[in-house]
Specification:
Length: about 300
């Protein structure tokens, strides 16, 4: 049966409309196979973690050097290192303690000096006794009377205190007496009582200054050491060493300076009277010293004679 032309045209029109409807539906549904959509480019996949998230351990690069292991360390080496650390810690604590003691002593001296100034006296360097030390006597004269600064200002020695000056020699009021500290290292070799050439020069200068400012006063020659054992076998004890050193100074003063035998006496203290703590090397060095102790009392007129120098 022949098809009418108009019927054929309507059929073609319906076929085209059907294809358009199918294409639109496929595009709306996201179908990737519809004939009107271009294929999308493939997006690369990143293996890096997002910010704030740690990377897996398997993806990290190996360390440049292996981490230290103490599994094979010798226990004795560890114990030795620990012992050294404990010794260093104890040394630091001792140094802090010594510094605190020195600070307390300096603060006391400053307070005493301010009190003397307020009382109208000269600025004097007071000296407190070391912890646990009481006043003692040496040769019938006071070793340290603990006199307040105001009373020291009235001492016969106060007027000349400001005139007494020897470079490198520390001076201080100690109760009613004046003390001059002479470092042992400037006078003797370690563990020796033989006078060094530089020590002779220092003693000559000190003796001349003392005789100029305090002529005729009693002078004690006192030997001190630290608490370290005596290294040489010459001396059986620190007292023997300090006694020998005091005798060396006595001989030098009476033979080569204006000081007279009648005004000098010797005292060997050993390590009994430290001025600072022996916990540090600096403290031990200061405690190794010879002291000239100038007393207010004078030698009687005509007692003794000035020895002639060589």
């Amino acid at each position: 049966m022949p098809i009418h032309p108009r019927s054929a045209h309507c059929a073609r029109t319906r076929s085209v409309a059907h294809l358009v409807v199918v294409g639109i539906a496929a595009a709306a549904a996201g179908c990737s196979n519809h004939p009107f959509q271009r294929p999308a480019a493939a997006t690369p996949v990143s293996l890096l973690p997002p910010p704030g998230v740690a990377a897996p351990a398997a993806s990290l690069p190996p360390p440049a050097a292996p981490l230290p292991s103490y599994a094979d360390t010798d226990p004795r080496q560890v114990q030795a290192t620990l012992a050294r650390s404990q010794q260093e810690r104890q040394l630091l604590q001792d140094e802090v303690t010594a510094l605190r003691e020195q600070l307390a002593s300096t603060s006391g001296q400053l307070a005493a000096a301010r009190g003397a100034a307020a009382a109208g006296g000269p600025m004097l360097a007071g000296s407190a006794l070391p912890t646990g030390q009481s006043a003692a006597t040496a040769g019938g004269l006071p070793y340290a009377a603990g006199m307040p600064a105001a009373a020291a200002a009235a001492s016969p020695l106060a007027a000349g205190y400001g005139q007494l000056a020897v470079p490198g020699v520390e001076k201080r009021f100690d109760g009613s007496v004046v003390r001059l500290e002479l470092p042992a290292e400037r006078l003797f070799d370690q563990g020796s009582a033989s006078l060094l050439p530089g020590g002779a020069s220092l003693l000559t200068q000190v003796a001349g200054e003392v005789d100029r400012v305090y002529p005729g006063h009693f002078i004690g020659i006192e030997g001190h050491v630290d608490t370290e054992p005596v290294e040489t076998s010459t001396w059986g004890s620190p007292h023997q060493l300090t006694a020998a050193r005091a005798a060396t100074l006595f001989d030098f003063f009476t033979l080569r300076t204006p000081l007279r035998q009648a005004q000098l006496f010797l005292v060997a203290h050993g390590a009994n009277h430290p001025v600072v703590s022996n916990a540090t090397a600096a403290g031990r060095a200061r405690n190794r010293r010879m002291e000239l102790v100038i007393y207010p009392e004078r030698v009687a007129a005509g007692a003794g004679a000035t020895a002639e120098g060589p």
